[in-house]
Amino acid sequence: MPVIPGPPVRGDGGLHDIATAGGLHAYQLRLHAEYGPVVRFELPGTDSAVSIADPVLLEATAGVNKRPEELFEFLAPLCEAGNLQTLPADEHTPWRRAVLSVLAGRRSHEAHFPGLTALAGRLANRWAKQAGEGPVELQKDLSALSLRMICQYALGNGVHDPDKVVTAFEVVLTEYLGRQYQPADPGTEEQRRKRAQEALTYLRATVNDVLASARQDGNALAATLVAAGMSPARVRTPY
């Protein structure tokens, strides 16, 4: 059986190499440039994730719904109704169908284009004002922009403080991901856990508020999921 090429395993979930590259996407681009269209590498939870950068192979794997549960164990405390990444095909297919009804299609994209353009424009204006003040934190700023866009696309106009949602999401993800590989610091562990739990509670409450008024914003993903009969716990899971 052929061995998939890739870098040596460090045992840290790939966090060092991903951070050094400036993010997961940049790291994958670097790996494909060095190892080819199919490459094996570490991700939190596994030492054998595979990235594919070949259109023929991607098409061949498009129908694979089953994913290793171990890969997403660190997210288990956040998932109220089962992790979407590891759901059986019979449960995952209806969810995917509902999601694609919003994410796919020109009408959906056109409805959200002005709002997403405005978000990008505000970031560009901030960069322009910072000209001459030193380097721009590109990875950090673009990650925050992506989260804001996702928040607006998924939750629509029901979010009163998108920046607070983005910050809360980053706090939760950093805490639960960090537990995998960072030694606990007794001096700060309780405080970090409390902060992460407060952030998670805030995120779920925010989604609840959006769901309560979802029908008023039919373009949002959350509204479509409610109309498709998804339970609140299921809708809250990705957020």
Write the layout of secondary structure elements.
Layout: H1 15-21, H2 24-35, E1 38-43, E2 46-52, H3 55-61, H4 89-103, H5 106-129, H6 138-155, H7 162-181, H8 189-212, H9 221-227, H10 232-236
Antiparallel strand pairs: 1-2
Strand order of the largest sheet: 1-2
Mean pLDDT: 78
Helix count, DSSP H or I runs of 4 or more residues: 10
Strand and helix order: HHEEHHHHHHHH
Low-confidence stretches: none
Rg estimate, integer Å: 19 Å
Overall 3D form: globular
- Describe the largest sheet: 2 strands, antiparallel
Write down how many β-strands occur, each being a DSSP E stretch of 2 or more residues. Answer: 2
Q: Which structural class best describes the helix and strand composition? A: mainly alpha
Summarize, please.
With 239 residues, the protein is mostly helical.
Tell me what the structure shows.
The protein is mainly α and 239 residues long. It is built from ten helices and two strands. A two-stranded antiparallel sheet has the order 1-2. The model has no long low-confidence stretch (mean pLDDT 78).
Features of the shown structure:
single chain; about 60% helix; about 5% strand; two-stranded antiparallel sheet; about 240 residues; 2 strands; mainly alpha
